[in-house]
Design a protein that fits this description.
This protein is mainly beta. It has three helices and eleven strands. Strands 1, 2, 4, 7, 8 and 9 form a six-stranded mixed sheet that branches. A five-stranded mixed sheet has the order 3-11-10-5-6, with no helix packed on it.
C-alpha cells in the first residue's frame, strides 16, 4: 500500500512530501555541503535514512508530520532536522537555533519498507520507492529568497537501510526496525550567520502542493 500523507490515519509505507511554488530571487547560492562529501562525518545516503526515520518513525506526540510547527524535537546532536509539510498542506515554524548549527532538510521524496511490503529484498524495496517518487515533481529549496540551483545533485536513492518506528507512531506500525529504501532530495545547509533567516522546502504531486516554511532566529 502506498503511504501518502493525505491524512494522518493512513496505513504505512510509502511517504510523499509536497509543496507550493513561490518565486525566488537569484543571487549567491546558499551554503550547502556538496553531495560529494560526508557532511559532519556521515554520508548523504545515511543522512537521508535518518531524516526519513525521524519524519515517519517518531511517536505521534513528537511527530514532525503531526506537529510541523513545533521546534522541540528537531535537534539531533549538533544537527537541526527541518520537517516538510504534509500532502496538500502548508505549514510554518518559528524556531530559535544556536550559531554553528547545520540544518538537514528534504525537498521531498518517498520510501518503502518491509512494514508494508513484508520483504527485505533490495530490488523490490527500491522499485517500490522509485515508483512512488516518480509521482512527485517541482522540488524546490529556497534559502533567504535564493533558490538552490541544480537540485538534482542532491537526489539520493539509498541502499537498504533500517528505518526504526517508535511506539505510538503516526502510522500504527509495530515498533521496531524495518529494512527500507528511500528515494529523496536531501541537503545539509551549513550553519547560518546570526540573525533572522527563512528556509522553504516544497514539491508537488497529483496537482496538489504543500510548502514548509521555517523562520529561524540564529543567536
Amino acid at each position: 500500500m502506498r503511504r501518502i500523507m493525505v491524512s494522518f490515519g493512513l496505513v504505512p509505507v510509502l511517504v510523499a512530501l509536497i509543496g507550493t511554488g513561490v518565486l525566488a530571487a537569484q543571487g549567491p547560492q546558499p551554503n550547502i555541503a556538496p553531495p560529494t562529501v560526508n557532511p559532519y562525518g556521515v554520508s548523504y545516503e545515511r543522512w537521508t535514512g535518518r531524516w526519513f526515520e525521524w519524519m515517519f518513525g517518531s511517536a505521534e506526540r513528537t511527530s514532525p508530520i503531526a506537529h510541523p510547527e513545533r521546534c522541540t524535537s528537531n535537534l539531533h546532536g549538533r544537527i537541526w532536522f527541518m520537517p516538510h509539510a504534509a500532502f496538500g498542506t502548508s505549514a510554518k515554524a518559528h524556531c530559535t537555533i544556536s550559531t554553528g548549527t547545520p540544518i538537514l532538510l528534504s525537498a521531498g521524496g518517498a520510501s518503502c519498507d518491509q512494514s508494508e511490503l513484508d520483504t527485505n529484498i533490495p530490488s523490490e524495496l527500491t522499485a517500490c520507492a522509485n515508483a512512488y517518487f516518480a509521482a512527485l515533481s517541482k522540488f524546490r529549496v529556497i534559502v533567504d529568497g535564493v533558490e538552490v540551483k541544480r537540485l538534482e545533485r542532491f537526489h539520493f536513492v539509498t541502499a537498504p537501510v533500517v528505518i526504526r518506528y517508535r511506539a505510538n507512531n503516526l502510522f500504527e506500525v509495530p515498533p521496531g526496525g524495518y529494512w527500507g529504501v528511500v528515494n529523496a532530495y536531501v541537503l545539509m545547509l551549513r550553519p547560518l550567520p546570526a540573525g533572522n533567516h527563512t528556509v522553504i522546502v516544497q514539491d508537488e504531486s497529483e496537482g496538489k502542493v504543500a510548502r514548509m516554511t521555517s523562520f529561524f532566529k540564529v543567536v
